[in-house]
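quick one before i forget lol
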Amino acid sequence: MTEDTIISLLTRHGVKPTANRLLIAGALAAESYPMSMKELEVKLQTIDKSGIFRTLTLFRNHHLVHQVEDGNDVVRYELCLSHNEDHDEDMHVHFYCEHCHRTYCLSDIPVPKVQLPEDYVLQTVNFMVKGLCPQCSRKKLL
């Protein structure tokens, strides 16, 4: 994702494109999987932990990131590429490998529609499938 594309994405979500915000959004865009705070801290050593946390909170409040809980008390973040705040068209299934402990985006698999009882209002969905990734599965077979 180019810097111009990231600036456009931030602007579309009502977020002013500061240097740190561009770095954090760029780091998230560069990976094919949701990143944890720890992974972002390692990758972005020029920004302190509180700066990363504040930016992720701002991004979350402006629907610019998805917050994914992997079931092991680790929260991960990925850019939201939706064009509509009311309907998040890029929600997808995530896969957690119980052997290598990596979380994968299964971008081509949409989250199944959930029919909630009356008076329940859906805010967010976290759809996590657990098992063995292809690489770990092959290792187990050998």
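fyi The longest strand covers residues 103-110.
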